[in-house]
Amino acid sequence: MSFSGMDITRNNRIIENLKSELLNSVAHLYSRLADDYCDNIKETALDTLSNVIIISYLLSRRLGLDYPMLEKDISAKIRLGLIQEHETEKYFGDLSALSHFRKRQSSAGNAS
Description:
Blueprint: H1 3-34, H2 41-62, H3 67-83, H4 87-92, H5 94-111
Helix pairs in contact: 1-2, 3-5
């Protein structure tokens, strides 16, 4: 098998592993949220959601999307949610808060 053939096979295997990790993480979060005895839901949510975000970034790269492209699309979706008054924005201002956070992060990254 040629090197490019091995790379394609390896990439496909990694994509399948990342998809599995993503589904397992989401299933774990659902399970913990449904658990009546989950005392540390914030810790569980932080751990699981940060894992989901990292896996999503890695999966996007394996699928041929670079990080700036992903970031641009995320920003566009946030703006669209603001325009369409998504429910979380309408009642809680979550998208505005996320938009401001991302702008501060971007500014802090440019300043260093």
